[in-house]
Amino acid sequence: GAGVSQSPRYKVAKRGQDVALRCDPISGHVSLFWYQQALGQGPEFLTYFQNEAQLDKSGLPSDRFFAERPEGSVSTLKIQRTQQEDSAVYLCASSLVGLRTYEQYFGPGTRLTVT
Amino acid sequence: AQKVTQAQTEISVVEKEDVTLDCVYETRDTTYYLFWYKQPPSGELVFLIRRNSFDEQNEISGRYSWNFQKSTSSFNFTITASQVVDSAVYFCALSEAEDSNYQLIWGAGTKLIIKP
Questions:
Q1: Distance from the B104 Cα atom to the nearest Cα atom in chain A, whole angstroms
Q2: Which residues of B touch A (CB under 8 A)?
Q3: Taking CB atoms and an 8 Å cutoff, what residues of chain A touch B109?
Q4: Confidence class for position B111, pLDDT limits 50, 70, 90
Q5: Residues near B23 by beta carbon (within 8 Å), at least 6 away in sequence
Q6: What does the pLDDT read at residue A79?
């Protein structure tokens, strides 16, 4: 497809379950970002990949959050032992070049609800 | 410290009115980039514009225009003759070129409601 895609679009998990969120960036885009967006707020940075290298994971809120991009294209954000405070929309974005000063193109997000 | 302030939490206007969304930023760097994104009710953030700190020329794209003023550290966004489809949350964001981290600094967003 032409844009960034994310799956699933909606995920309901029981507290304590593990979840995996997938992001397919725009083909050829070097940079990939994950964000967490709570209702009524702006995106909060989680982590950044340049190709397969995770160059910044300073935004991951705890060691229950883990992201990978093993082949430099598709990325997965995994949340272990989900908690209610993890409920949010998780956004993925990609950018053509390896500089965050370039525009990012966002996917539709995955809305995670932890019950 | 880097900071982006969008003081207007919500704006409501009637269709065809002009509306300006304010964005004020703080940075110590001389080289930086400013962005505007639109987030319609569907949820997907849509890139609108990127402006670097050395280009103070105002930009116009159809009904959209942006006014970048370094003297007041502002990068305001105006929609002329607003339409219902413009209803969305609009975010302003800042990136410093010399910074070693990879984070965009986002404003809190302004919710724009265009009434028919």
A1: 7
A2: 33, 35, 37, 42-47, 50, 52, 91, 95, 97, 101-104, 106-109
A3: 41-42
A4: very high
A5: B4, B5, B6, B34, B36, B74, B75, B76, B77, B92, B107
A6: 98
